[in-house]
Amino acid sequence: MTEYIIPANSKKGQLLFNLFRPIDLWILVIGGIATLILFFVFGKGGIFLTVASLIPIAIALILVYPVANYHNVLVFLQEIFLFYMSQRQFSWKGWCIRSGTETEQGR
Predict the structure, then answer these.
(1) CA 38 to chain CA centroid, nearest Å
(2) By residue range, what is the domain housing residue 28?
(3) Helix, strand, or coil here: 69?
(4) Is 87 within the bounds of a domain?
(5) In a domain, 19, yes or no
(6) Into how many domains does the chain fold?
(7) Residue 42 in contact with residue 35, Cβ under 8 Å?
(8) SS3 88
(9) Considering the domain boundaries, does residue 52 fall inside one?
(10) Which of 29-38, 70-79, 96-105 has the lowest mean pLDDT?
């Protein structure tokens, strides 16, 4: 039997700059553009307006930050959303329930 050794970083070769998916780059670009626009609009408005201008890029950086066992925070949040929004039906079949027909139960 032949065994193939797959390098641990084989998935990273499919990413842009070995780190980003295309949607991640778009999030960063849009956050950066929004921050620049806010800087031009508010100008020298003080520390509060400067911090408010940095909020879009801060959110973008948080979303594309890598997380263990997930690609990044955005993927983690998507998985949480899908988990809680998917309809799950659990049918209980314990040791005392009879399910199926009588022929399956040996009668």
Answers:
(1) 27
(2) 12-71
(3) coil
(4) no
(5) yes
(6) 1
(7) no
(8) coil
(9) yes
(10) 96-105
